[in-house]
């Protein structure tokens, strides 16, 4: 992994590159930001550059090849065992860091889920953060600063990672061969996360996008059997139902944008359908529908009956 392979967060990458160049490396860093914005990749690129001895990892030396294969003896990864990182895991990491490095200039570890340290495991880690063995490097990853124990936060250099711009995610997805329409929708729904954008491109729901939206737009109150279409499509499939709500919400937001005269729609490939639906729904109705979609998605996430939730939604969306 090299710095050049990371999408977005250019300011943080520049900071890490300057640290590598200067040789003034802190013993502990805390990378904070949403899932899928490059925290772990940045940590891996930082360590790779330090192990490689260049400002950016070459990708060809023995160290780079071992890091890429996940087999470097001087890099240790700590992830939650279940809900939390447990004290025994921390103690094992401490034993590993106490040894001299085998071939790298220093030992390094990535703690992926620093917000999953409980009180006992967090307290156990404090001693290592205060007095790191040798010149060991520790990089902790977390989604929010508040979720990390204050005593741990105060002993780390912090870098804040933000969401990746939609345009960059879209360009990245198309570079991987994703069709433009799919990349556009996936990027807009990714919430700044490359990981989520990739996941959206790889799920069946994207191939059904047009059919799902057509079914929702075709709901009519006078056609009773028609009202159960959405429920039948996703009966008992909670994950797909949640994804479908996200796709429908993006379409309904586009209806609102179209009515307001904006051309910044996500579903531009469905412009004819957007125009037809925007013409026969009032702005107030569209806003109410968006609110109902949000409530339905929340209910599904809270383990509500999927079929019942979608049937109720269908009645609200029907014209």
Structure description:
This protein has 319 residues and is an alpha/beta fold. The protein folds into 2 domains: 3-160, 3-Layer(aba) Sandwich (Rossmann fold), CATH 3.40.50.300; 203-317, Zinc Finger, Delta Prime, domain 3. Helices cover 54% and strands 8% of the residues. It has 16 helices and 5 strands. The chain has helices at residues 10-22, 39-52, 62-69, 87-98, 119-130, 150-153, 166-175, 180-189, 194-201, 204-207, 209-217, 229-234, 238-259, 271-280, 283-301, 306-317, and strands spanning 28-32, 75-78, 108-112, 137-142, 157-160. The chain has a 5-stranded parallel beta sheet, sandwiched between helices. Strand 2 (75-78), helix 4 and strand 3 form a beta-alpha-beta unit. Helix 7 packs antiparallel against helix 8. The longest helix has 22 residues, at 238-259. 39% of the residues are buried. The model has no long low-confidence stretch (mean pLDDT 87).
CATH architecture of the largest domain: 3-Layer(aba) Sandwich
Q: Low-confidence stretches at least 5 residues in length (pLDDT < 50)?
A: none
User: Averaging pLDDT over every residue, what do you get?
Assistant: 87
What is the helix tally? Answer: 16
Classify the helix fraction into a percent range: 40-55%
**Beta-strand residue percentage:** 5-15%
Adjacency order of strands in the biggest sheet:
2-3-4-1-5
Number of domains: 2
What would CATH call the class of the largest domain? Answer: Alpha Beta
Radius of gyration: 24 Å
Cα shape = elongated
- CATH fold group of the largest domain: Rossmann fold
Largest sheet at a glance?
A: 5 strands, parallel
Order of helices and strands: HEHHEHEHEHEHHHHHHHHHH
CATH 4th-level superfamily of the largest domain: P-loop containing nucleotide triphosphate hydrolases
Number of strands: 5
**What is the quaternary state of this protein?**
single chain
């Amino acid at each position: 992994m090299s710095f050049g392979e990371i999408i977005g967060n250019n300011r943080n990458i520049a900071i890490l590159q300057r640290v590598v160049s200067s040789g003034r490396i802190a013993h502990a860093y805390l990378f904070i930001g949403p899932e899928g914005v490059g925290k772990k990749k940045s940590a891996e690129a930082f360590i790779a550059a330090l192990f490689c001895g260049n400002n950016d990892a070459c990708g060809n030396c023995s160290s780079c090849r071992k890091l890429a294969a996940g087999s470097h003896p001087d890099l240790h990864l700590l992830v939650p065992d279940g809900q939390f990182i447990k004290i025994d895991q921390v103690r094992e990491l401490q034993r590993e860091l106490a040894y001299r490095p085998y071939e790298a200039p220093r030992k390094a570890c990535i703690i992926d889920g620093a917000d999953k340290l409980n009180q006992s495991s967090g307290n156990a880690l404090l001693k290592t953060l205060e007095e790191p063995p040798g010149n060991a490097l520790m990089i902790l990853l977390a989604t929010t600063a508040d979720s990390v124990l204050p005593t741990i936060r105060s002993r780390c250099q912090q870098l804040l990672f933000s969401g990746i711009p939609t345009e960059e995610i879209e360009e990245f997805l198309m570079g991987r061969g994703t069709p433009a329409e799919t990349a556009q929708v996936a990027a807009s729904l990714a919430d700044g996360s490359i990981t989520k954008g990739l996941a959206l491109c790889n799920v069946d729901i994207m191939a059904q996008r047009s059919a799902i939206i057509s079914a929702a737009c075709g709901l009519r109150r006078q056609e009773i059997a028609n009202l159960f279409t959405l429920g039948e499509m996703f009966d008992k499939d909670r994950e797909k139902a949640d994804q479908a709500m996200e796709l429908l919400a993006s379409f309904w937001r586009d209806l609102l944008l179209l009515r307001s005269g904006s051309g910044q729609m996500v579903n531009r490939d469905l412009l004819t359908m957007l125009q037809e639906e925007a013409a026969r729904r009032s702005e107030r109705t569209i806003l109410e529908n968006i609110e109902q979609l949000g409530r339905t998605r929340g209910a599904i996430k809270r383990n509500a009956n999927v079929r019942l939730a979608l049937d109720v939604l269908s009645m609200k969306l029907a014209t």
